[in-house]
Amino acid sequence: MMWHCASNVYFELSQQWSDLHKPEIKLESLKEDIKDFLKTSGWEKKLQNAVYSELNMFPSPCHPAAPPEHMKEPLAYMRKAQGSWEKRILKSLNSMCTELSIPLAQKRPVNEQKELLNKWNEMGTDEPDLSLFRPVYAPKDFLEVLMNLRNPNYENGEQPSFRNHLGLIQVPLKVKDIPELKEDFSELGLNIGQLGIDDSAQVPPEFFENEHVRVGQKVLAEQDSAAAQQYVRQGCPTALRADLWALILNISNQPEDILYYEQLKSNVIQHDLLVDSLIYKDVKLTASNDDYYFVFEDYLYQVLLCFSRDTSVLEHFTYSSATPPKSYIQGKLGMEEYAVFYPPNGVIPFHGFSMYVAPLCFLYHEPSKLYQIFREMYVRFFFRLHSISSHPSGIVSLCLLFETLLQTHLPQLFYHLREIGAQPLRISFKWMVRAFSGYLATDQLLLLWDRILGYNSLEILAVLAAAVFAFRAVNLMEVTSLAAAEAVLADLSTLKVMPLLQIFLFATVT
Fold this sequence. Notes:
Mean pLDDT: 87
Low-confidence stretches: none
Largest sheet: 2 strands, antiparallel
Structural class: mainly alpha
């Protein structure tokens, strides 16, 4: 978290600073003394990691004359589309509120507070009646909105490079072709050792693995975020993954972080929000029915309920195309001074949202650390999967990249599916929105997320989606309906992610 992280660093550093008030420190050598102090105390690394973390998250500087909304999203029609999508979500939430006669927020009665506190670690056993609640939206509703996006500055077909795009996404954004992707993902090359590849011809897997673990331990000992990010591009050894991801995300779980989490927890205990029921419902509909994740039901409630109260999440809206929704105190509708962000973190959960947290439960068993890792993953990556923007890692670009890769490299398959009314994006969209969580086996999903962190990009999701279609192309060429195509791709749990990516990127004829 941007300011949260910076203030933590500042707080810790000020504690240490008293060491420099010793009489033997002379003014004339102060600069060198400070440098020595930073080196010997380990603060040089901490400051480097904090700066690196900020550079990874913030967008490149805009032109000095550019208006502030350009930092959020440079294209006016994207901003407008995101704005009307937000209004639609809020309308859906408010109408549910009215229909069920439930307030958006209310203080819990004292006996209810006690009860919730007592069962905090076993909320999964609770069976509230959620039959009247429905998800505010599902990925397929969002896809319909993206399909209707248009750039009003020209008629479709005026721009030659875009004239031949036959997919569902009809906006002209620049996406990478295979040669550019090969260059960007060069560490995935066929002649480079990878975790997740069982039969690399160049290096015996066990030899590569032993050496890779040794290097990983060294990277952890150095505590260098940039080195860790480079390292995980070839995959994380299972035993080191939790620590390496925390290092890349600059999460150290200090006492003040644990205290912050406890404060969020007490906010959950004291106040009941309408979104709590949406979170419950989502966990019950998704993770609770998943063979891998049902055991983490309690963790998911804890993390997501705390997340909804965390106002530090609002900071990411400075570089997200989205704007946090506002609600008005009863009877003060339209009066800005009575407006509050709702929910407090500005994020309304949708169907499948809890699956962003579920895989992290395999790595982190300490609630406050699990919470921080998820929050950081969300503000760096996941928010881009459910907001409308022109960012290369945004969902619109990912959809366009997926369709372009398929149309360019598997034209016969693309045209066949299009002709039978089974546009490929209708099938792959749900995979990409969830970053494949709940679709791949967990060990394969974690190998994929290694690369998201390593390359600081979500583009690999679109590449994998195209690679899945390439892998199942023979079967897909025989289907005659969308339902049949969906059946061929219904189960991805046996797929091996790394060989699929390598073959698609490096064995595709370009």
